[in-house]
Automatic annotation (TrEMBL):
It comes from Pseudomonas piscis. It comes from the Bacteria. This is Molybdopterin molybdenumtransferase. Catalyzes the insertion of molybdate into adenylated molybdopterin with the concomitant release of AMP. It holds the Pfam family MoCF_biosynth. SMART domains: MoCF_biosynth. The keyword Transferase applies. Residues 181-318 form the MoaB/Mog domain. The lineage of its organism: Bacteria, Pseudomonadati, Pseudomonadota, Gammaproteobacteria, Pseudomonadales.
Length: 401
């Protein structure tokens, strides 16, 4: 492990993904549709139905056989509602039809009711030019039976679940949840509800990460707070390596005397990398303890947020089989000058105002509130300066959940 030079973000990401590829979760389980939100699909979802299953009307109107029509008004011989199929169209007639209703056999055109004149004798006159197939949604317009609708590795959100429901699915196979042991380190930490003691702060990282892990389909093993004590740190890691797919920690990875987590990982585990060219989040430490991967996030809340969002998240996505793990970024003009080129890649909490990225005024890694104010992160590459109006990559927070 190189100690001197800072590791570029891409290299750290590639290393985490290689680690994840070797530890893909191969067990899956089949669960009811309403229990799989935010889980990852374990096998391709293949359509069993054409959708729509039969041609249906896109409008409230009248269905006719345009190919054999003489242009004269037509008798309305039947009414077809959604869910109640009609009968084949008799020559010289049309059918009253409503949106979503199956188009009767023999009809090849639907005219919307606004373009039709009802005559006193009960017939309808078509007042506009008609085209074959108009206002008919053909069978299989959306998909054909046998088509792959969702690939294995897709995370199941509302859209994907609705697609499965449209096929009549009641259950889906999903990758088993990664078990993540979540450990907060720091003598100064108290849990909310405890009386605040001098010199102490409440543990916010645990709440941040518990909910974030949950959104990523993980099972959280809450391992509580660990004091800054090497012996206890080693013991706790030994306990946690059984039954966890990942040990995720916060704090204790800088170079200070009380930073035990990093020390123990370096002394008793197998460190892979430490010290990244990223700001905030430089002390991120990754390695193995026994057979279990450990991702040691820095303790500062904004550092934990940035390194989890950009790196640990990608690892967790990939072990679940998600192919596309990098968040989508968009290039946006910045509303600020960035005059000092940094040696680390910076991620700044920012908000879009009139299409330009505006920075939260306090970018300290200890400040969490900026993340609530912001819509995402602006990325400033190493060695770059910017003037207002220059483009920078903006990663919306919505991409990270
Ligand atoms: P460390 O990475 O342990 O040196 O911690 C860096 C800073 O983050 C210190 O100011 C810690 O008090 C703070 N910190 C560490 N862990 C947490 C946590 N779980 N919640 C809130 N702040 C924390
Ligand atoms: Mg600490």
């Amino acid at each position: 492990m190189s100690q001197g030079k800072l590791m570029p973000v891409e290299e750290a990401l590639a290393s985490l993904l290689a680690m994840a590829d070797a530890r893909q979760l191969d067990q899956s389980q089949e669960l009811a549709l309403d229990q799989v939100r935010q889980r990852v699909l374990a096998c391709d979802l293949v359509a069993t139905l054409d959708l729509p299953p039969w041609p249906n009307s896109a409008m409230d109107g009248y269905a006719l056989d345009l190919a054999h029509w003489d242009g004269q008004p037509l008798l309305v011989a039947q009414t077809v509602f959604a869910g109640r199929p009609g009968t084949p169209l008799q020559p010289g007639t049309c059918a009253r039809i409503f949106t979503g209703a199956p188009v009767p056999a023999g009809a090849d055109c639907v005219e919307m009711q606004e373009n039709v004149e009802l005559l006193d004798d009960g017939r309808v006159r078509f007042t506009q030019a008609l085209k074959p197939g108009q206002n008919i949604r053909p069978q299989g317009q959306e998909n054909r039976a046998g088509q792959v609708l969702l690939e294995a590795g897709t995370r199941l959100g509302p859209f994907e679940l609705a697609v499965a429901a449209a096929q009549g699915c009641t259950r889906l196979p999903v990758v088993r949840k990664p078990r993540v042991a979540l450990l907060s380190t720091g003598d100064e930490l108290l849990e909310p509800g405890m009386a605040l003691r001098e010199g102490c702060i409440y543990n916010s990282n645990r709440t941040l990460l518990r909910h974030w892990l949950d959104a990523l389909g993980c099972e959280v093993i809450d391992a509580g707070i660990l004091p800054d004590q090497p012996q206890q740190t080693r013991l706790r890691l030994e306990q946690l390596q059984h039954g966890a797919d990942l040990i995720l920690t916060t704090g204790g990875v800088s170079a200070g005397d009380a930073d035990c987590l990093g020390q123990v990982l370096r002394d008793s585990g197998r460190p892979l990398f430490w010290k990244l060219a990223i700001k905030p989040g430089k002390p991120l430490t990754v390695g193995y303890f026994g057979q279990v991967p450990v991702i040691g996030l820095p303790g500062n809340p904004a550092s934990a947020l940035v390194t989890f969002g950009l790196l640990a998240r990608a690892y967790l996505q990939r072990i679940q089989g998600v192919g596309e793990v990098e968040p989508l970024g968009v290039m946006v003009p910045v509303a600020f000058d960035w005059t000092r080129a940094g040696s680390r890649r910076e991620y700044l909490r920012a908000r879009l105002e009139q299409g330009r990225a505006v920075l939260y005024p306090n970018q300290s890694s200890g400040v969490l509130l900026g993340a609530c104010w912001a819509d995402g992160l602006v990325e400033i590459p190493e060695g770059r300066t910017l003037q207002a109006g220059d483009l920078a990559r903006f990663i919306p927070f919505s991409e990270l959940f």
